[in-house]
Amino acid sequence: MTDGSDDSLDIVCGSGNLFRDFGYADADVRQAKALLAAQIIKVLNIESLSTRQAEARTGIARSEFVRIRNVNLARFTIDRLVTILGRLGPEVELSIRVRPARGL
Fold first, then answer.
1. Cβ atoms of 27 and 19 closer than 8 Å
2. Three-state DSSP class for 82?
């Protein structure tokens, strides 16, 4: 028995950038920051580093690692996140692809 409402779901294919899908003007910057933060968090987790241990190892303030763990990235630039990741140890290599904008 149905109540007349349509319970079907629509499947939408995303662009690969959640921020673009939600219409943020700075979607590409937000995506890059999120990916870099995810890598920083990954290193912290793999090496079981607390924010205090990360500070001692890198010279980067503990509060910065707290912000990254909380994905509070507004105060960070891409180059700052790259620097933090590099100080944690991994070699950082960036790859950028430029494509024509949709509809042009």
1. yes
2. helix
pLDDT in tens, 15-52: 888 888 889 999 999 999 999 999 999 999 999 999 99
Q: Give the separation between CA 53 and CA 45, rounded to whole angstroms.
A: 12
Boundaries of domain holding 54: 19-88
Question: Which tens digits make up the pLDDT trace of 63-79?
Answer: 999 999 999 999 999 99
Characterise 72 by phi-psi region: left (phi > 0), alpha (psi -120 to 50), beta (else): beta
Q: Are 94 and 78 in contact (CB under 8 A)?
A: no
Q: How many domains does the chain have?
A: 1
**The domain that contains 84 carries what CATH number?**
1.10.260.40
Q: Is the pTM of this model over 0.90?
A: no
Confirm whether 11 is domain-assigned: no
Tokens of 15: 């662009």
